[in-house]
Every structure is written in C-alpha cells, then in structure tokens.
Amino acid sequence: MGLLPTVAAAVEGFGLFTGWVPHRPDLRRRRGDTSALVFMLVAILAPNAFVNDAIGTSVFAILGGASIWTLLMVFPPATAADRRATPAIGSSRFRRGPLSVGLITIAVMIAGSPSSMATKPIFAIVVAVVVGACFATVAAAFQILLSAPITAPPPGIWPHSAPVGPLPGSWPRPGAGTPAAAQRGRAVWSAAPSQAAPDNSLALVVERYTSLLYSTERANRPIAEAAIGSLYRDAGLDPPPCVWVRSPREAMLAQGVLRALAGFLGGPAKNQARAWQAVRRARPHDVGSEDWEGLIDTLQPSLVDVAQPARIFAGDYTTLAWDPPDYTGIILGGTNPGAARLIQGSLAIRTVVNRQQAAITYALGDEAVFAGVHFDHPTGLPQSINALIVAEQVHAQRKGWVPLTRTTAMVTLLETCGGWWPTPLAVVLTERPIVAKRDERGLLHSADGPALAYADGWRVFANHGTPVPREAFEHPDTIDVSMIRSERDDDRRRWLIASFGSSRYLEAVADSLELIKTEPNVGLRRQAINRFGVARFVQEAGTVIDSDLDGLGQVRRLWRAPRDRDEPIVLVEVVNSTPEADGSRHHYWLRVPPDRTGCQNAVAWTFGINSDDYHPQFES
Amino acid sequence: MPVEPVLYRQGDVLLRAVDAIPAMAKTVVQRDGGRIVLAYGEVTGHAHAITAPESEATLLSAGENARFLRLVADVDLLHEEHAPVHIPAGMYQVIRQREWSDADGDEESWRYAGD
Predict the structure, then answer these.
(1) Which of A570, A606, A609 is closest, CB to CB, to B113?
(2) Deepest in the core among A3, A104, A274, A600, taking most CB within 10 A?
(3) Residue B15 has pLDDT above 70, yes or no
(4) Taking CB atoms and an 8 Å limit, are A607 and B82 in contact across chains?
(5) Closest Cα of chain B to A612: distance in Å?
C-alpha cells in the first residue's frame, strides 16, 4: 500500500471524528466540508500510485464508504422541526450538495480504481456502502462511549420549542403582521446565533415585554408546562406537577392549600385522601368556604401522586429562580457600548413590572399575607426578574451567544402564561387576565372599569399606575373627607381627592382650622389657608411674638403661626393712622418673611428699607 | 457717618429722598385727571396722587420697581382715606409697600400690598 492512500485515510479519519462537533452545527458543517474536499482530491490523485494493487482497491472502497457516511452525518436528513425553524434546510439546495458530492466521489473512485474494479462497478458500490456502514457503527460506538449526544442538540438551544413570531394581540406595532415585522420578532427571540439583533431591538424588546404583561391571550398550557419541565431538569430536579388557576388571588390561595397539604402529608395524615380531608377542614377563618372548597376541587385532580415525601422535602426548587446571576454586572463589566441602553431598557420594564406588582398586592389587600404564604412576587416569578432576562437575552443575541436553557424557558413562560410560582408540591401557574388596560406610558390604568380582570371575577382598579380601592372606584359617592384623610399614599390620595372633587375638598378643609393644620399636602394647605384667611389663621393658630408703637403711636404686633413641613406664616399687624368716619381704625395685616422677629424690622422690610433707617419724617 | 434717609409715608406708599435720579429714567407723561398717581388701591380705586402742574412735578420711571419724583415746588400727596402729606421740593424714589408671598417662600419674592 502506497503512502498516498495512507495519508488519505488519516485525513478522512481526522475529518470523521473532529468534524463531528456536538452542540456546534456551524463548526460541524465547516469541518465536514473540508474533510470531504480533501478526501476527493486524494481520491483523484491516488489511483496512479497503486494500479492493480488489491490492497489499494480495498482502501478505495473504505475511503468511499467513509466519505458517504461523513457527508450524511454532516448533512443529516432534516427533521420536520428543523424545517419549521429553518425553511432553507428543506430546500433542494441543501439536499443536492451532499448527494452530488457523494455521487461524484463514487464515480471518481470507480473511474480511477484498478481495472478489475472498473469492470464490476456495482460490486464496488456495494463494498463502499457496506464499509461505510461499518465506519458509521464504529464511530457511533465511540461517541456513545464518550457520552456525547449524536443528533439531538441540547434542549433550548436551537431550534427551540417556543412559538416563534409575534403573539396575536401582543405585538401591536407599526408594520405588525407583515413578514418583515414577523422576521424582526424572530430576530430577537429565536434567531440562530449567527444572526445579530438589529440595533432597535432593545426598544422592541421593552415593548414586547411590557406588552406581554398586558396580554389577554389564553395560556398555552402544554408549552408552558414543557418550559417548567425544562427549567426543573436544567436545575437537576424532577419537574413537579403543574396546577392552573385563574388569577393571582387564586394563585395565592392555592399556595395556602399546597402549604397545608404539604404539612399534612409530612405530618399526621399518612395517606393522601386523609390529607386532602384535613386540608378542607383547615380553611383559614378569613377565607370563604366557597373559595377554599372550589380551589381544592380544582387542584386535587392535578395532584394525585404528590405523596412522595422526597419530593415534598426537596426544598432546593427555590434555586430555580431566586438566585439569578448578576447579568447587569456582566454587561457593565464588558465593553459593550450599548450597555447603558440595556440597563435603561431593563429599568423601563422594571418600572412597569413594579407598578403592576404593587397594584396586584394592593388589590389583594389583607389577603396578601393570607396563611403566611410567601407572596413577595404577586405577578409571578418571570415578571419579577424579567428585566434581567431581557438584558441577558439581548446581550446574548448581540454577542452571538446561545441563550441559557433557563432564560429561554422563562421567556417561553412569559410568552405563554400569566404568573407562576414554584412550590415544593407543585408549580402554580395562572391564566392571563381577560381585561388588561394601560395608559400611554404603559402604566396600569382604566378610568371606566377594572384595569385588570380575571376569569374568576377578581379585579384590580388603577389610575395611571396607582392602584385604587374598588369600593371608591365603583361608588365615588362613598368617598368622604375622612377616607381621603386616612389615605397615606400620595398618588392614591390625589385620585381620591379628584374623584371627590378637588374644589369641594378644598372647601371642606378650608372650613376647619383643625383640617387645615393637619392637611398633609403643603400646596393644598396653603390654598386652604388663603381661603380661610391668612390673618384669621394666624390669629387662631399663631402667637404674638413682638409688639410696639409706630411713629404715630399706633400699636403694631408681629404674629407668627408655625406650619408642618412649611415655613411659618409671619404677619405684622398695623393700625391705620387715619380713623374712619365712625372713629374706628382699620387694621392691616402685612405678610413678611418668616425670619422677621420684630415689628420694626418687619415693617421696614415691606418698604425695602434698613430697619435702623426706617423713621419717616411724616406719615399718615 | 451715613445719614438716616428722609422718608415720607402715606399708607402703603413711601417717598425716599435721593441725591440724583438715574439718567436712564424716562418721564411718565400719562396723568389721571391731571394728577400724578403714585399708586391705586387694589379694591377701592382710591389713589395716592399729587395735584400739581407738569412744570412743578414730574414722575419718572427707570423700571418697574424704580420710579422717581422730581418736585420743583413743594406739593401735597393726597389720598381719600389718609391725611395729606406735605412733600418739600426735591428728588424722591417712590417705594410701594410689598408683602411676603407664600407660594414661593423658597425664593425672595413679594407682591405689592394694596389698600
């Protein structure tokens, strides 16, 4: 056997094993191409070196088989999923390449091989295919031994299972619905690593995320549950069952139910039926029996096999989402010039998220602490941390990185359902609201009905991002001054005042010295004092801090009335030097700066004269 | 040693004797019924006014808060509710009484007091 076929075999073998790079389809294809080309050159040049050599014939057969196998592995037959994700895979261009290379290789091999083989071409092809199959078997065995996946890319990489393209109803932007718009959406969420996101992608991402927070699409339960599964498996955990509820309120109650169930299963009740009975009896006194029983009826069928103690006590599920890496730090630590914009985008989303969380917490009211359930994330986990996910996703796309399984799954969840909460027994997932309204700034808002409404009838009322009480919203006539006065949140108080009638409220406050003194809004209090009368206010709420006689012997008094969180009101009271027709004298009240301490320097200030210099020659 | 300024007051108007009137000050030609009105009352329509021919008394203005009176002869400052104030010939700055205002207590701002 000559030197050349040996080299050819070595090259082919090298290409065979190094060309197959799991997880990296891009490298795999390039190296496969290279080795196939090198092999063809060798195959063309080699025959002259060992004509009529029986060993040479065998080597040709082996090389031919190896070549066919390599090409097949490099361009594996496309699956249906591949074709959906990348239409080009199904095109004839992709299939024709490997096929023609393979045929040319066989033809060259036959034409250049020893004459004995040339006369029996069919035999040569059969030998090549058989030997190729042997090669494939050996190589597959090697890869199994090395525990490397052969065909399936790791889940969540590409193409991933999340629905691509815009969600109906949550992508209402200019040009939406056109192929170009759909392509932009895909470029952000499901692009191949080589496709860099366009520069305006951040604005689109912010809009898309905030839109998702206001989506009223029905949840896609199978895909959401699959994402939960991949999330848990990624964390090395067995996925627990998923239970579905209709609103954040039900989600909160469900967590109370699950908590009680876990307690009974781990403690006194040894079998599941008895544990459920105990849960039914354990209804908290502040939860209606209809709510409690109804929820148990919903949850119980989904939780038939939760009695394994191991799963109950696997507390490490929390690491799934409560310990996100510091992506912000990673981005800031790099040299990405868009880092600041990324952070801004994250903050923009976070603002909307925080407002929505606050609104839901407010609407839950006292129930939010129900049964001691941890309910720090009233809108569910993905919404709580999505600012970080956005930063990571966008950054990853720009860098050509492949997103993590975990973040991909979380994005999928955000795209397919409402909030979700992992608990030891089950993951609680919610449907989306059936009504979700926002103002032009993207804040929860509706002036003529609930801003959020859920299928179970639970509703949230909000005014430009500020949650407001349901009773006051639906029956504004129940708003009174004492309700306004007991409201501690400034924004909500403003809304109450506006609903009550701001001039009506001002009148009510200006009518009472006590209400004026306790009015928390400084500007409103000033208006109320003006309406009440500044002089009257100072006489009723203040004290005389100085008194003397003016140049005409009339009494002057300096009054001072303190105000909470505002400068004191200081007035100098002067008496008209000329008596009225009836002999009485007019009193004038002159407002002076709060730092005046005596009548003299107060009056001098009103004319802009130095206190010591103010001694008129004549006055009247 | 600084000399204490010469001041005449009638209600909320103060006249302060000055040595000179700024050259930029322009004569205020407008009169009300032949009178020089230094200030009107906000509500009553009463006025602090000088009844004197143009040759004897001139009002000049160098800006909103800088008005001056040039008196060639002695005049009386009159007001419906106040005793007349006799003003000797001379040059005066016309100062209106001001009040501290609440709305902008943060900055030094004021408005005129009205009778």
Answers:
(1) A606
(2) A600
(3) yes
(4) no
(5) 8
Q: How far is CA A370 from CA A259, A294, A300, B79, in A?
A: 12, 17, 20, 75
Token output for A602: 């107060």
Q: Rounded distance, CA A498 to CA A75, Å?
A: 68
Give the best residue of B99, B101, B107 to mutate against chain A (max A CB count within 10 A). Answer: B99
Q: What whole-number distance in Å separates Cα of residue B103 and Cα of residue B97?
A: 18
Q: Are A619 and A577 in contact (CB under 8 A)?
A: yes
Task: Compute the 3-state secondary structure of chain A and give helix, strand, coil in percent, each to the nearest 5.
Answer: 55, 10, 35
* Interface ipTM: 0.90
Could you tell me how far CA A379 lies from the centroid of its own chain? 10
**What is the dihedral sign for C-alpha A604, A608, A612, A613?**
negative
- How many angstroms separate the CA atoms of A119 and A542, rounded? 123
Task: Compute the average pLDDT of residues A562-569.
Answer: 92
Considering only A154-158, A339-343, A612-616, B7-11, which range has the smallest mean pLDDT?
A154-158
A52 or B26: which carries more pLDDT confidence?
B26
Nearest CB among B8, B105, B108 relative to A617 is that of B8
Render pLDDT for A480-516 as a digit per residue (tens, 0 to 9).
Answer: 999 999 998 889 999 999 999 999 999 999 999 999 9
Distance CA A168, CA B58 (A): 80
> Are the beta carbons of A620 and B105 separated by less than 8 Å?
no
User: What is the SS3 assignment for A35-82?
Assistant: HHHHHHHHHHHHHHHCCCCHHHHHHHHHHHHHHHHHHHHHCCCCCHHH
Q: Which residues of B touch A (CB under 8 A)?
A: 4-11, 14, 16, 79, 81-86, 95, 97-103, 105, 108, 113
Is residue A506 within 8 A of residue A534, CB to CB? The reply is: no
- The whole-angstrom distance between B80's CA and the closest CA on chain A is 10
Report the gap between the CA of B17 and the closest CA in chain A (Å): 11
The 10s digit of each residue's pLDDT in A515-538 is: 999 999 888 999 999 999 999 999
- 581-620 in chain A: CB under 8 A from chain B: 588, 590-594, 606-609, 612-620
CA distance A120 to A278: 82
Phi, psi at A412, each rounded to 5°: -60, -45
Confirm if A313 and A265 have CB atoms less than 8 A apart. no
C-beta atoms of B100 and A591 within 8 A: yes
Residues of A in contact with B64 (CB under 8 A): none
Is the pLDDT confidence value at B55 over 60? yes
Chain segment A171-230, per-residue pLDDT in tens: 223 333 333 333 333 323 333 333 444 456 667 777 877 888 889 999 999 999 998 888
